[in-house]
Amino acid sequence: MSYPVSYPATNPLVTVTNPSPAVWVIEIHNGTDNRLTDVLITQALKPALDTVERHWRENWRSGQAQKDESLCKGSLILVGNTKQDKFFSNGLDWAGATKDPSFKTNFFPVTFNPLLYRLLTFPIPTIAAVNGHSFAAGMVLAMACDYRVMTDGSKRNAWMCMNEIHFGAAIPNSLIAVLKAKASNSTTLRKIVLEGHRFTPQEALSLGLVDHIVNGNSEAILTAAQTLAEKVGPIAKSGAWGVNKRELYRDAIESLSRDVQLIDVLADDAAAKARL
After folding, report:
1. C-alpha dist (Å) from residue 121 to 59, 69, 77, 97, 262
2. pLDDT on residue 104
3. Which end of the chain has fewer CB atoms < 10 Å from its terminal CB, N or C?
4. Cβ(232)–Cβ(125) below 8 Å
């Protein structure tokens, strides 16, 4: 396999690199704030994940055959556009997406939930290099990874936040399920879901939402993520990493398959008005 590889081939939105034999990096560069659009997910992120998994599995099979553990290890890093230090991802393109009448019934079960499933069950350790703000679905994208390395915010403010409560949007079941699988306790979940709290990197670290915070720009954050990737990559050599995650996150995975159309706040109010 020859790197870098970009997807889609015309107007690339992600680039896959292989900076060391057992580390792959998927960099998202969809505009200035990395909105998670249908095109980004279906034509860029999913093919990029396929490329990484295919390459690792080829290495793993070869390593198993040759009894060479060095070929079996591996880790994947997701990072926001490294040419800026402001956004990991600003979430969905809500204004654009909701113009499509099929958005509520199709986008999550057909597009976004399968992406979350891939990350929750990916066969090698996944690390989100959170090099800026991660809002809404962007926060969930980071939380779906196994580890998170985040900027410490000293160069530029950076927050993790599910801000849907502030603009009157219900959070889909699948996103809630991922948050419940990864947040440490009900108090933290209350702050995330019901208060829409903007977690500073230091708060996120203290609550276990991220594993490390790093002083510096995107390059420093990516370097720290690569150091972690080299450390945890050998765990993948047995081939059981993804298999065990399926059981660890069983509740979340099952929720991904039964996401239903949301009742929006106006419909909820209308139902309450009729009831009361």
Report:
1. 19, 22, 15, 27, 25
2. 64
3. C
4. yes
pLDDT, tens digit (0-9, with 9 covering 90-100), for 131-187? 999 999 999 999 999 999 999 999 889 999 999 999 888 899 999 999 999 998 999
- Range 97-124 average pLDDT: 85
HSE at residue 145, side-chain half, CA atoms within 13 A, is 27
pLDDT at 260: 61
| CA of residue 63 relative to chain centroid, distance | 29
Q: Which of 132, 116, 90, 103 minimizes the C-alpha distance to 176? A: 116
For residue 249, pLDDT over 90 is answered with yes
* Residue whose C-alpha is closest to residue 10's, from 39, 50, 49: 39
DSSP H helices in the chain: 38-40, 46-66, 94-97, 113-120, 137-143, 173-182, 186-189, 201-206, 218-232, 241-248, 250-256, 265-275
Residue in 38, 121, 119, 135 with CA at minimum distance from that of residue 80: 135
Q: Does domain 5-275 have CATH number 3.90.226.10?
A: yes
What per-residue confidence (pLDDT) applies to 59?
Answer: 96
Give residue limits of the domains in the chain.
Answer: 5-275
Q: Is 247 helix (H, G, I), strand (E, B) or coil?
A: helix
CA distance 210 to 138: 14
Q: Does residue 109 register a pLDDT over 80?
A: yes
Q: DSSP character for 21?
A: T
Q: Which residues contact 58 (CB under 8 A, 6 or more apart)?
A: none
Residues whose CB is less than 8 angstroms from the CB of residue 31 and which lie 6 or more positions away in sequence, other chains included = none
